[in-house]
Amino acid sequence: MTERLNSGAHEVRKLMREAEGVTDEALIACARLKQSMLGMRTDPAFRVGAGHVALLRLQRAEQNFASGFGELLRVHDELSQIARTTAGIDEGVPTEPTGPTEPTGVAAEAPIDTRKPELV
Predict the structure, then answer these.
(1) Which of 7, 18, 21, 4 lies closest to 93 in space, CA to CA?
(2) Rounded to two decimals, what is the model's pTM?
(3) What is the mean pLDDT of each run of 10 residues along the chain (120 residues)?
(4) What CA–CA distance (Å, rounded) separates 66 from 63?
(5) Is 104 left (phi over 0), alpha (psi -120 to 50) or beta?
(6) Per-residue model confidence (pLDDT) at position 61
(7) How far is Cα 82 from Cα 115, in angstroms, rounded to an integer?
(8) pLDDT at 120
(9) Are 27 and 62 in contact (CB under 8 A)?
(10) Which of 22, 48, 104, 109 is least surrounded, with the fewest CB atoms within 10 Å of its CB?
């Protein structure tokens, strides 16, 4: 594999992992937001059904992120096939993620609220 092709392949691999990670972070952030929204709805000060439309919209956003992640996986697979057919399998290039396995960014900032909502 030429140096330019090798360098480009490393950059694409790095950016692919980054895109996949950001999508996961968005899903985690949405889940935390939903948990907080649902917790607020249990407060007696809120009317029954308050925020329902917002919850439905958030659910749609989560579905879109999940669909987008599926498309990213297809992109990843297609790029992997191109790499195999164009340059052959490069034994010296790791394919496993090398970055952190714990959430980073938005996903790592806020702790998950594990309190159970009070029943009224």
Answers:
(1) 7
(2) 0.61
(3) 79 90 93 93 85 93 93 91 74 51 53 49
(4) 5
(5) beta
(6) 94
(7) 48
(8) 37
(9) yes
(10) 48
